[in-house]
């Protein structure tokens, strides 16, 4: 059934005709299910999203879309239907009942057994029945009979939707309608999927404890004393987090009436009577809460599965009183509990701002945005965002659950650990006294269990069999077991594999630490085997051997100094400490809030608001080109861009939540910047060892969008009015959202590229085609790129071929950079130079030269000194230049050089400095 309307006959005829040209039978596209169809008033486009139907049942994953302009003319279509589906489909008569399917899904998902299953809404099985929650789901359970493509056939399945009570998953599961076997599942919850251990390992190099000393000093305005009626005290757009700026009072009067006509708050006079049910607002005398048409923000910390219980309680949302004064004290050093009301208010504000900004760019009622009541006739209401602050169901994470339009999205914001970097402090002898950097183990007793530190005398072990005096700890009991007992055992890494056969033992870190424990040590220090090395590792692995003592890792250089003192008979005394600071609150890391809201945007827009399964990150066995995390990062960066920012400045994600300074790397592999010397991500890395996980894959897409965003800003300017249509930032965001509407369900990177190009064609007459192609090609998504192999309808990471070329006849546009010359006054030489990237600049030993230049013959790349002498020349295919050509500069004298690139289309130059 259509979500808002029905496609025109012209659109459906076009879809059927084109589908047959693409290899389908006439019957394959003759009987369609319309999941949603709506008119976009701003663009005049009608977007219709379809699903194949056989024997009166929908085919899961067999989807298509068709888009028409104001005149009804089709402008774009995609289809992923099953060819000859009628022949492949078995009988539509199931063996299992819908109730039995719920039980089978619970078994397959490893959930408790359902109890008291009761039919709530009867219907034809192919249209979907509704059952009560059966004690296993937050909501009533929809069940629908469908077909599922499996290995070239269609299987009859029941599609069962269950929102787990622990709030960690919202499953749509397909179980065999005859056997009950779980065949397929997808999750509406999109989580960060990164453990805090991984986060810490990435961020450790630049981690700084955010305390009262390093965070902005709280002023009186930050302590809940503004007392400004009709306002919210928050970290306002574009302040990314408490480390980036202070809070201010944002008046309710500044709220856009165009995009939030009912206001933000339940007691807003603009909201018509009866807008909010009593069960939602619970409005009593003097109760004015952080709840409104777009979002309900509340404390969800009391239990691990609180959900609706907290939503419906007045005490879990801050009360602004009749004065609507939402000003509450905030202090990170005082801890998140003391700042809970301030954090919830901030979460409420940012969700509302995201609603308004994204609605101004096309994520509106018709396309499935989040609102309790819609003002128009398109789209379904009843789906405000449930924004849960300090959620008790997890830590060190955040997630967004986005079911189909008409069902609330839920954003869960957690607390993040605040471990100050652990250290080992030597108090004697005086020559070694000081603080040493250490790594810690993922097993054994944590140093955080010792608030005052774990202190003792250090003793080098002697196992009696290994080299270096037995200090490798390869055997037990130690020769000096009595001396080690009650002390801190010093053990060198490695050294056990070289022992004679019969003496070799478990040489792992865990094995060495276990033997130290057996000899009475209170702690173990593992010293790196490279005596000149300065690297510090976190000791990985799982405790499978009963380790109950702490252990740390120090560098070879530091370890050598300690061993030297011990060998000289000098006692060494030290303390290992891992102080714990107050938790960081995700509800005030606004980049993460925007990232999570972003998952709601791309989920509702891709494939239409009636299908939340068009950005699948994995089918359970194969990594896919899911760009969801990339969109999330881009939205977070976009919302927190300051007018003074430039594209070259590196930006991290989640620096506040991970305890880093504002310039920290954050929780991603690389910082975001349009400087290729800092972030050289390209399509070519997708599917390689470090780029098969969802977030790593998403980084490449976000880096590409970030490049384009800045090129638009440099061309059209930056508009501080984020609700506006002018300015490069607003123009490009609109293209990104429109691209999501136009792209195929479960797009590859190249599908996403093509959708943005088509959006520019439809909205701007292709005015930005050259710059779009230039920047896509720069990141490996050029004209000749290949998008990989699709498996089960999903774009896998297999078979990807990156390309850095432009379409035939399309010249690259200058890559603008305000450092070259003031914007708007680019000279011919500056434009020429902006077509060639040379990095790093200054360079030391190896220079990479990259340019998206066309050439009918091989290119010649030369370096010319300031007196005109050619000092080095390389000739290579144009493809090498487009991918990045390396030149050895180690033998060149320091100074300024001109990089000269000769092609069949002309000569292009840029400057580079060599500095050894």
TrEMBL record:
Keyword entries, A-Z: Hydrolase, Metal-binding, Metalloprotease, Protease, Secreted, Signal, Zinc, Zymogen
Top-level lineage group: Bacteria
The UniProt record lists the keyword Lyase: no
Domain PA positions: 470-562
Cofactor section: Zn(2+)
Domain FTP: 31-78
Keyword presence, 4Fe-4S: no
Compartments (UniProt record): Secreted
Domain Secretion system C-terminal sorting intervals: 839-913
Similarity section: Belongs to the peptidase M36 family.
Protein name: T9SS-dependent M36 family metallopeptidase
Organism encoding this protein: Hymenobacter antarcticus
